[in-house]
Amino acid sequence: MFQDYDLLLTPAPPIGAPRIRMGSSLRQYIELSRSYSPFTPIFNASGQPATSVPLFWTPAGLPTGAHFAAPFGTERRLFALAAKLEEARRWAVRLPPVRAA
C-alpha cells in the first residue's frame, strides 16, 4: 500500500466517546474497545509509525480525531504533519467542558 501512498488516514475513533458505566464487565469493556478503535491496533501490533490527532469535536465537546499511519522509517513525516495540523486546528488550547483528575 505504501508503495503508492505516503500516508494512510483512518478515523480514530470512528464513533464518539462512549459512556463508561459502573459495573461493566471485562468482556463488555473488550467488546466496546473493539468497536471503538478498530484501526489503531493494527499499527500498535506491527510497530509501524502512526499518530492520532484530535481534529474534530462531538456535539458534547469531546475530541475525536484522525489516525495517520506511514511506512517504516518515516516518523518525521508524521511529526511534521501533526505539527501543521495542530497549528491549523489549535487543539492544545481547547479545554474540555468538565475536567477530572
Kindly describe this structure.
The protein has 101 residues and is α+β, with helices and mostly antiparallel strands. The chain is 33% helix and 20% strand. The chain has helices at residues 26-36, 40-46, 75-89; strands spanning 8-12, 50-57, 63-69. A three-stranded antiparallel β-sheet has the order 1-3-2. A hairpin with a 5-residue loop joins β2 and β3 (63-69). It is flat and about 45 Å long.
Task: Kindly list the characteristics that best describe this protein.
101 residues; alpha+beta; 3 helices; flat; Amidase_dom; Amidase domain-containing protein
Brief rundown of the structure:
This protein is α+β, with helices and mostly antiparallel strands.
Rg on CA atoms, Å: 15 Å
On the 0 to 100 scale, the average pLDDT is 84
Which structural class best describes the helix and strand composition? Answer: alpha+beta
Largest sheet entry? 3 strands, antiparallel
Strand fraction: 15-25%
State the strand order across the main sheet: 1-3-2
Shape: flat
Number of helices, counting only DSSP H or I runs of 4 residues or more: 3
Q: Give the total of beta strands.
A: 3
Q: Indicate the low-confidence ranges by residue numbers.
A: none
Roughly how many Å apart are the termini? 41 Å
Q: Residue share in helices? A: 25-40%
- The domain count comes to 1
Protein name: Amidase domain-containing protein
Organism: Paracoccus yeei
Pfam families: Amidase (PF01425)
